[in-house]
Structure formats: C-alpha cells, structure tokens
Specification:
Blueprint: H1 7-12, E1 16-21, E2 24-28, E3 34-42, E4 45-53, H2 59-74, H3 79-85, H4 92-103, H5 110-122, H6 137-148, H7 152-171, H8 210-217, H9 223-234, H10 238-242, E5 249-250, E6 255-258, E7 269-272, H11 275-285, H12 307-314, H13 323-335, H14 340-346, H15 354-359, H16 365-379
Helix pairs in contact: 4-5, 4-7, 6-7, 14-16
C-alpha cells in the first residue's frame, strides 16, 4: 500500500521527521543527512529501529523493511532483537540497493544508475525480501528463465547484476560458497548460450517516411516532440540528447560538444549542428530556465528518458527513438556518397582497432557538417513532394 511520501519528497524534504505510514519515518537532520526509522512499541516501551540511510535505501526498500519488521511484531518478535539474532544478514533487496549506491559514482550518467535500479527492482522482485545468504541457483533461474529467450539482452544484464550483488554479499561476509548467478561453469550448463538466441533490434522507421513523420512532430505542442526532432536531426542517442546542457552548445561555430563522461564510448564527441538544429536551439533558448536544454519538471533534472518513447506511443508509431539512428545510417549509406567511416563517426561509433584509432587525429567535423546539413534538408523537405537526397562527395 502506497504511503504518504514520494521519491521526490525524500530527496527534497527539509530538516524534520516525516511519516510514510505503517510506523515508517524519514528523519532529515539539519546537516542534510537522511535516514529511515521505524517507530514501534515493545512491551509498553517506545522503540526506534534504524532502517538505513535514504541515500542508499530507496523508499520502496524502506517500506519493505518496515513491513518485514511489522510482521515480526505481529508474530510476537522484537524486530531489533531478531535482527541481532540473525547476525544482521541483509535481504537481497537491501544488498542490491547498497551495491547500486556504491557503484553510482562510476556510472556514466544518471540513466545508467536508473537502469541498474529498475532492473534489480523489476526483474529481481521475487528475491528482494529473501535473506541474501539464502538465494540459490533455483531462485536465480526463477528470475532468468521467463526472460531468457524472450528478452535475451535484458536477461544477460539481469544475470550480470545478480552476480554482482551476490559477489558483494560474499565480500561482506554475508554469503559463502559459489555464486549461483555465475555463468561460466554453472549457469552455462542450465541455460542456452546468449549468443545462440535471436537478439532483437531497435525498431526503425524507413528513412523514406521520416520527412512526413517530422512534419507531424511539428504539429505537436510538446517539449518531447521538439526533443525528438532534434534527436533525429543530430542522430544522437536519446540519453545524450536529453542530457544536453547549454554550456555544451557553441552557437557561434554551430557545434554541440559532448564530454567523455556522457558518451557510450567514453570519449569526447562533437556534433556539427545543421541550420535547422540551431534554429530549434535558439528558440528553446528564449525560455531557458535550467542548465539542461530539455529541462524536466523537477529543478536541476532533465526531461524524463521516457518522454520521447511515450510520445511515439501516443502517435501510434511502432518504432523506437534509437531506431532513428538506423534510419539515418540507411539513408546515408543508400542515398549519399559519403564514406562509411564518416557516417560511423557521425554516429559516434568507434572505428578500427586501437592502432588505427591512435592515428586518427581528426574527427572530420567540417565534412560531417555537410553530411548532417544534407540529412536535415532531407528530413525537413516537403513530404508530399518527391524528396531527392543530397549526395556528398566521397
């Protein structure tokens, strides 16, 4: 049952004590630290039991801990004494939250952290309330089997994250023996190899339909529609686009410079901005209210990474945002004479082996500018007329 607090309230509440119901409280000190506390009465005396820091224990996990303690009370057990008796063994969910908090500083961006949190909360939900030392191979298989063939890439990530959490539990002394989520020499005997499964591809729109689609986007008065058009015009990944900051934009030279920390390959990338892309950004600049170009509802946060996906659903278009990168790739390969290496560079793909990369000093910015201007011209052409793509020089 939902309580009174929200995830946003947990991170923004000022000093004080806030009830979530079910005897669970968020306590915020004047120094800004936040912790979870369960208040209860044991044999006529008021008691408080700490449930962890709000920086590492999520609201949903705190509720799980509170519910578990209340069940112990109803069974005639003092939850504090019971926790001491069991040696303080955390649940899988508690351990997972701790691992995500510990690894977060090394994640490339907030989206990566959200993916870890979502994966472990959604697919590993049956394990969250289990003491981490009791998770077995059968438990791991019960999580993986339903998605192993249907969602192979997701399943592979889930397995790796389960292994990480259980390894951390062993390192903390909460587990002994082999890791039940280990692949080599263990699960590889019980599940088909991921490489043998059919991997899904991001559904892409045929490039011939893109001009009409963008014309439809412009009829929508929504920030997500503007973001999606710019995402298509720059052939950027959705996370890169939504994380765009104003200090990354060089209007004078029409360049968007992304730092290494925001790139999948971990290296800086420059995107030449077409005339239409600059016009979009100039228009957005008039209502700038945050460091993010596409500011979200919460201060200091960008637009949700689901915003563009939900827009596509409302438009009843069965493609993905990432698929428009494939649309660009197909158009550039089929309809222009630009070399493959230039097209791949425009997509921020790593080209060649390490030796070749070491000698590749230039990112061919001006050549790519011609390519992206041609793509923008193609995308913004009148869709009712025959569109003739521009052909670049090899």
């Amino acid at each position: 049952m939902a309580g009174r607090l929200t995830a946003r309230k947990v991170t923004t509440a000022k000093a004080g004590k806030y009830s979530d119901g079910n005897n669970l409280y968020l306590v915020v000190s004047h120094s800004g630290s936040r912790k979870w506390v369960l208040r209860f009465t044991w044999r006529g005396q008021a008691k408080e039991m700490g449930l962890g820091s709000a920086s590492s224990v999520t609201l949903s996990s705190a509720r799980e801990k509170a519910a578990s303690a209340v069940r112990a009370l109803k069974a005639g057990q003092n939850p504090i004494t019971e926790r001491k008796r069991t040696g303080g063994i955390p649940t899988f969910g508690e351990m997972a939250d701790e691992v995500v908090a510990a690894l977060s500083p090394g994640f490339r961006n907030e989206k990566h952290r959200a993916q870890w949190t979502s994966t472990l909360a959604t697919y590993a939900a049956p394990l969250r309330t289990m003491p981490v030392d009791t998770v077995s191979t059968d438990d791991v298989l019960s999580v993986l089997k339903p998605i192993w063939t249907e969602k192979p890439e997701t399943a592979s990530r889930v397995r790796g994250r389960l292994e990480k959490v259980l390894d951390a539990a062993k390192a903390r002394g909460f587990r002994t023996g082999e890791n039940p989520a280990r692949w080599r020499g263990h699960l590889d005997h019980l599940l088909p190899r991921p490489s043998k499964l059919t991997r899904g591809h991001h559904a892409a729109m045929p490039y011939g339909e893109v001009p009409a689609f963008i014309a439809g986007l412009r009829e929508r008065d929504a920030l997500a529609a503007v973001a999606l058009e710019l995402c298509i015009l720059t052939a950027a990944r959705s996370g890169e686009l939504l994380g765009m900051r104003w200090d990354e934009i060089d209007f004078q030279n029409a360049v968007w410079s992304l730092p290494a920390g925001r790139m999948k390959a971990g290296r800086p990338h420059r995107v030449p901005l077409s005339t239409r892309a600059v016009a979009i950004l100039r228009n957005l600049e008039k209502s700038k209210r945050d460091e993010f170009v596409f500011a979200g509802h919460a201060p200091g946060r960008p637009l949700s990474n689901m915003a563009m996906d939900m827009l596509l659903r409302r438009m009843n278009v069965d493609v993905t945002v990432h698929g428009f990168r494939s649309s660009f790739r197909d158009w550039a390969g089929n309809e222009t004479g630009y070399p493959r290496e230039l097209i791949e560079t425009a997509l921020a793909h790593v080209i060649g082996d390490k030796a070749e990369q070491a000698y590749r000093r230039s990112d061919a910015l001006e050549k790519r500018r011609q390519l992206m201007e041609a793509w923008a011209s193609y995308c913004t052409a009148d869709p009712v007329q025959k569109v003739v793509p521009l052909r670049g020089k090899a």
